[in-house]
Design a protein that fits this description.
Strand order of the largest sheet: 3-2-1-6-4-7-5
Structural class: alpha/beta
Helix content: 40-55%
Radius of gyration: 19 Å
CATH class: Alpha Beta
Number of strands: 7
Shape: globular
Length: about 220
Amino acid sequence: MTKELINHLSINVTTDRFELFKKIAEDRTDYVTVLLEDIYQSQNASAVLRTCDCFGIQNVHIVENENEYSINPDVTRGSSNWLNLHKYNSKKHNTEDAVNHLKEQGYRIIATTPHTDDVNLGDFDINKGKFVLMFGSEMPGLSDIAMKHADEYLKIPMYGFTESFNISVSAAIILHHLSHKLRQSDISYLLNENEKDELILRWLKQSIKKSDLIIKDYLSKK
């Protein structure tokens, strides 16, 4: 049914746009995903989404504890529309629920912060299974709960006086390095055919006015 709906809706967009959807979907991955914990700076938060889209990271998990996650449209440049955003905000403290949910899906939980047991970015092993990269707010960083539940700790080597990059720069450096490494590997990291179809269908729906009515009319005639 998904493929049928894709074929039906695709006539409502240009051939070039539909081909672009298929091309981008071919390069998407959920082998690596990102978790943003309580980010309150909208520019940094938005820049991370833009980076994820650029490097083909399809899923981003957003934990809202003290701060609501806000997006700056001038920074995202529409990139958030093409990602799957998963929000955790039903409780006062949501980090543990988010981490446990990802662990149940088989993800290794990676805290991106200096730690006694950390590993340098260049030495991180992508072959041990899919993983989620956790990023915290600018000043406080990741919470104690996030650190406690992390399976591994990752850091970017630093050689200057400044202790760290800001979150958007850190995410860009780490995702660039690891996504490049992933694409050079023989790991099966891409979305499967069903996942790609679901993604293309979603992109078509949000690109076509009254797509829900078009689908309803199509299904009523079957």
